[in-house]
Amino acid sequence: KQWYQRESTGSSPIAEKYGHLWGTTTSDPEQKQLCRNYKLGVYKFNKRPSQGVKHLTTTAVVDNTPYDIAAFLLNGKGLSLSQIGNFITDLRKPLSMAVLEEFMKQIDFTALPFEQALRHFISKLRLPGEAQKIDRLMEAFAERYCDCNPNTISEAQDTIYVLAFSVIILQTDLHNPQIKLHRKMDLESFIQNNRGIDNGNDLDRNLLEAIYEGVKREPIISGRDHLDFLESIDKSIIGKKINLMDPWRMLMMSTQMHEVHNRNEKLLPEKHVRNIFLFNDLLVITKQVQVRGKATTKTTKERVISTCSFQYRQHFMICSFKAESWSSQFYPYGVRLLDSYDDRLLIEMSAYSEDDRTAFLTELAEVTWVYRALENDRIGSLGVADKLGQSTLSLHSFILIQTADGGTLTHSVDAFSNLISSKRQNETPWGPPVRCFIPRVSALPT
Predict the structure, then answer these.
(1) Do residues 296 and 317 make contact, with C-beta atoms less than 8 angstroms apart?
(2) Three-class SS of residue 268?
(3) DSSP of 176-188, one letter per residue?
(4) pTM for this structure?
(5) Closest by CA position to 273, among listed 297, 252, 257
(6) Helix axes 49-58, 66-75, angle to 10 degrees
């Protein structure tokens, strides 16, 4: 979870609160519910920022003020930097514009050189892909930089704005691998592009040279978030696997266990070791392998090296299985996964200690609760897209929720059919009747 930790940028009580909400384990019911609502809000934010902010303010995790929302974006754990950039540059929503203003006020650029201040700002988010949104961010940066450093480079805010946008273009030009070397912007071209931007006057050449050399030497990059870590995991898992690159997917826990094929046969310590990755929506089981590759050095033309990778074995969606503990003579810390539909055994494993088993089952229970809450919210929103003739309800997800709450499979299918019928009778904008196909039990997805 160190990948989700972000440097605190404020000293307000609400900023300090976000430092421990993520990953907190407590027996206090109120604090536990607060942590769950926080995680639920983060997942929603990473999928749809406006829905995440609405959930967090509704559940009183974040006060419904631009200042507190901005503090959450700057100090919250697990947030997608791309979604932060998209949210505060949404020109259609007054709330986003107000949050952007407070967002900038909580970043201090005092006494920072221009290039360092721009790097510090971009480390808090990822620049959106739309030029209009980048333009809005550079305008906000210029205004804040001038407030913190009056008359340092120029008296005109427009000068800082044009220079900031020029540096972003320089960054893209110098560090885009698709641009050939002989076509990259040189120093003289950069200086030429910025002639007369200070109310018709030129900026100090030494300043422009320092900025150019600094960007050329080290690219201006965004801060790291959970997607960077997710990408490294996705690359390390080989084989025919599920695509892990989803903006709202997060790694909640990773551990090692032994896969047990025979309870009455003791395994050697190095046999059937499985590396388990628990995400907020699925469980991936892998086997660590050594992949041999080649590397080139200055002393030898070629040498063989070994790198650590994980061979994909199988995965299970959260709520499609349930976990139970078991023990035997050779495996005192066993964990079994059973199918939520028919209690069919999916896999049996053994942890290294009781603490490892408890930690895994506890984290799995929290992940399941949050995932179930997300699915319940999605089911509760039925009818928004249905007015356009499209159903947002997944039969598979509905049955997962029903069976997880103790209902039978037949009851779940009947409940789904009744829900569709009631919605059709009560809402007229649905248009002509649509046939609802309920698959056979044997054809349900596993």
Answers:
(1) no
(2) coil
(3) -TTS-GGGS--HH
(4) 0.77
(5) 257
(6) 110
Name the phi and psi angles at 391, rounded to 5: -95, 135
Which one-letter DSSP state was computed for residue 204? P
Strands 334-339 and 282-295: unpaired
pLDDT along the chain (446 residues), means of 10: 41 52 68 89 93 93 94 91 94 93 95 95 92 93 94 89 94 91 92 93 94 94 87 89 86 93 85 93 90 48 52 92 93 94 93 95 92 83 47 48 49 55 44 40 40
Structural element, H or E, at residue 189: helix 187-193
Phi-psi region of 234 (alpha: psi -120 to 50; beta: other; left: phi over 0): alpha
Catalytic residue of the set 16, 115, 130, 270: 130
How far is it, in rounded angstroms, from Cα 18 to Cα 29? Answer: 18
Cβ atoms of 93 and 50 within 8 Å: the answer is: yes
Q: Are strands 303-317 and 237-238 parallel, antiparallel or unpaired?
A: parallel
76: left (phi over 0), alpha (psi -120 to 50) or beta: beta
Please give the full DSSP string across 118-140, using - where no structure is assigned: HHHHHTTS---S-HHHHHHHHHH
Beta strands in 148-302 (DSSP E): 237-238, 251-259, 273-279, 282-295
Chain length of the chain: 446
Residue with tokens 């005109």: 156
Residue 188 bears catalytic tag: no
